[in-house]
């Protein structure tokens, strides 16, 4: 089998093309290996993250219990607050009624005192008009301060 020069040159060109393709494929293979390595690192990192999340999820039960307990405590406090507000409203109403009654009693006492003062003044006038005793005599039983003032005047 004798090769001619043209065949030999054609084979050399094919060989060079094959070598260039091999070189190109080697470069692509290296790039693919690098990408594969990076992807494996990411997979490893994601698996670690997933494992961590799974552990947190597994231990999430205590968190759920804590949240439930806090929700129950909040509901209890809200119920206590409502009860306290109702009691406060009842006490305010009771106080308001008591205050109104005391104000009414005070007004009644003032009216009775005013009537008593008017009656006593009327009695004093009739006593002072009906008796020939000195004017100071009429005031002796009423107010010691008025008596003192009258003595100072004379």
TrEMBL record:
KW Coiled coil (keyword) present: yes
The keyword Coiled coil is annotated on this UniProt entry: yes
Keywords: Coiled coil
Chain coiled-coil ranges: 8-42, 67-112
PANTHER family, alphabetized: COILED-COIL DOMAIN-CONTAINING PROTEIN 192
Record protein name field: Coiled-coil domain-containing protein 192
Originating organism: Vulpes vulpes
């Amino acid at each position: 089998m004798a090769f001619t020069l043209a065949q030999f040159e054609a084979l050399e060109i094919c060989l060079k093309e094959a070598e260039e393709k091999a070189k190109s494929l080697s470069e692509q293979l290296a790039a693919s290996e690098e990408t594969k390595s990076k992807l494996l690192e990411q997979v490893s990192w994601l698996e670690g993250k997933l494992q961590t999340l799974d552990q947190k999820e597994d231990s999430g039960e205590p968190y759920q219990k804590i949240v439930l307990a806090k929700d129950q405590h909040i509901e209890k406090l809200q119920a206590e607050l409502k009860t306290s507000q109702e009691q406060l409203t009842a006490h305010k109403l009771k106080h308001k009624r008591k205050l109104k009654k005391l104000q009414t009693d005070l007004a009644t006492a003032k009216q009775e005192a005013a009537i008593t003062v008017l009656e006593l003044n009327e009695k004093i006038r009739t006593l002072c008009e009906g008796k020939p005793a000195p004017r100071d005599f009429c005031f002796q039983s009423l107010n010691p301060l008025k008596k003192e003032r009258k003595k100072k005047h004379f």
